[in-house]
């Protein structure tokens, strides 16, 4: 008799940690992802702003799981889930059956019904997104160097980040540091330090999931870096060459979207209730109603802890859910009753710039250099692979001492800028 088959959709934190936790279990594991690498998403903004190379924050899934003899890795895309037949249909027309299914397909950026904005304002969820943003940011300076018209030059040197959550705050701080430090001596006809970096947030404050004192500190630190922070400024339109927000038109050629997320559309095929972000509303054991064999984890799950609210879509939640699902499956096979998932909240961190961060850890709320050191330790600790950790530390040390960024490469064909309309 063959061992139970555990099919894991997604090689993110939930999927990887579930697979690693099952490496000695009496099961056969299949990890399926449409990309061949595990990505450390919290560091994507560093790739987007030329601080790190893509390989520094990504590792091949096969390499990560090479020591798990009961695990195979497949490069494929899941198209639909048939919970009645216990199988997943793939994009090539084939299907894979399962005894247990772990869905950790993550999330994408949401444009709140304005999907036509995506080509003009890319989000930051994949390496492709990060490289595209890096290309646009670096090209903006290159085109400003050649532009004779001061109005068009100003548009090239205006960078707009939409969304004041952690991604938006980190992006704004990093772009501000690029123009102030990394590029200040590289051009002859423009002064990169004169570039405008704007952070637009539709709500009343930045980092809304953080204590208000840290939101205020983040805003203050960003302004010290020269970022124009505008809260209660809802973006109403994005067109080639400009952004409209709160009745105000901003000429710009570079927009980054960090304002919202939506879960993978694959979850719709589960036939289970979804929340407004498209996440599956799960039971206390992280499964969907009526199907104890189907776990939905991480960014794909709407989980309500006993204290109220919902768990955030951050890597510690996904990691703990992945390990919990593995323990639960092993418990099922051993005949043990299930226990509800309990999240150990270790706090949250957001970096603002060189030597600046804010930390919300248990009852401790602090910012500045100490928070930045904690942020470095936590993020390097979660990177998969010893090589990645060493490289990231060396890159950071070099950047900190020299104010330089070593990944300032434009690798795609340079196309003419889109004219404003």
Question: How would you sum up this structure, described in words?
Answer:
This protein has 421 residues and is of the alpha/beta class. Among the domains are: 5-34 and 76-109 and 261-334, FAD/NAD(P)-binding domain; 115-259, FAD/NAD(P)-binding domain (3-Layer(bba) Sandwich). Helices cover 30% and strands 24% of the residues. The chain contains ten helices and 25 strands. Strands 5-2-1-9-21-20 form a six-stranded mixed sheet, with helices on one face. Strands 13-12-11-17 form a four-stranded parallel sheet. It has a three-stranded antiparallel sheet with strand order 6-7-8, with no helix packed on it. The longest helix has 20 residues, at 127-146. The chain starts with a strand and ends in a 19-residue tail after the last helix.
Shape: elongated
CATH fold field value of the domain at 115-259: FAD/NAD(P)-binding domain
What's the CATH C level of the domain at 115-259?
Answer: Alpha Beta
The CA-CA distance between the termini, in Å, is: 66 Å
Provide the residue-averaged pLDDT: 91
Instruction: Give the total of beta strands.
Output: 25
Helix content: 25-40%
Let me know the largest β-sheet. 6 strands, mixed
* CATH architecture classification of the domain at 115-259: 3-Layer(bba) Sandwich
Instruction: Show unreliable segments.
Output: none
Strand content: 15-25%
Measured on Cα atoms, how large is the radius of gyration?
Answer: 22 Å
Computed structural class: alpha/beta
Count of helix runs: 10
Question: Widest sheet: strand order?
Answer: 5-2-1-9-21-20
């Amino acid at each position: 008799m063959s061992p139970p088959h555990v099919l894991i959709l997604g090689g993110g934190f939930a999927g990887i940690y579930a697979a690693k936790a099952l490496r000695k279990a009496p099961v056969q594991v299949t990890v399926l992802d449409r990309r061949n690498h595990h990505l450390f998403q919290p560091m994507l903004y560093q790739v987007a702003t030329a601080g790190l190379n893509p390989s520094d924050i990504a590792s091949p899934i096969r390499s990560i799981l090479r020591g798990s003899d009961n695990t195979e890795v497949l490069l494929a895309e899941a198209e639909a889930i048939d919970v009645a037949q216990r199988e997943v249909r793939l994009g090539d027309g084939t299907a894979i059956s399962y005894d247990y299914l772990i869905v950790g397909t993550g999330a994408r950026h949401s444009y709140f019904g304005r999907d036509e904005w995506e080509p003009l304002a890319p989000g930051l969820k994949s390496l492709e997104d990060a490289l595209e943003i890096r290309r646009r940011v670096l090209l903006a300076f290159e085109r400003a160097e050649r532009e004779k018209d001061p109005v068009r030059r100003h548009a090239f040197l205006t960078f707009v980040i939409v969304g004041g959550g952690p991604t938006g705050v980190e992006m704004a701080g990093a772009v501000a540091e690029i123009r102030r430090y990394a590029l200040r001596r590289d051009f002859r006809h423009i002064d990169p330090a004169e570039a405008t970096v704007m952070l637009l947030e539709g709500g009343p404050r930045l980092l809304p999931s953080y204590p208000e004192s840290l939101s205020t500190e983040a805003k203050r630190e960003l302004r010290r870096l020269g970022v124009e922070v505008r809260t209660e400024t809802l973006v109403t339109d994005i067109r080639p060459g400009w952004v409209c927000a709160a009745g105000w038109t901003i000429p710009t050629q570079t927009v980054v979207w960090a304002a919202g997320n939506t879960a993978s559309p694959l979850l719709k095929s589960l036939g289970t209730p979804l929340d407004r972000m498209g996440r599956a509303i799960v039971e206390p054991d992280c499964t969907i109603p009526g199907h104890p064999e189907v776990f939905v984890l991480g960014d794909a799950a709407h989980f309500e802890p006993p204290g109220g609210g919902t768990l955030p879509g951050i890597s510690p939640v996904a990691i703990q859910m992945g390990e919990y699902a593995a323990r639960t499956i092993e418990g099922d096979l051993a005949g043990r009753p299930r226990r509800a998932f309990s999240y150990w909240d270790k706090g949250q961190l957001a970096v603002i710039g060189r030597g600046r961060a804010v930390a919300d850890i248990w009852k401790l709320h602090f910012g500045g250099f100490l928070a930045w050191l904690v942020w470095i330790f936590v993020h390097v600790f979660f990177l998969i692979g010893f090589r990645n950790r060493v490289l990231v530390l060396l890159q950071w040390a070099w950047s900190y001492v020299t104010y330089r960024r070593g990944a300032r490469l434009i690798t795609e064909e340079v196309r003419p800028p889109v004219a404003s309309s």
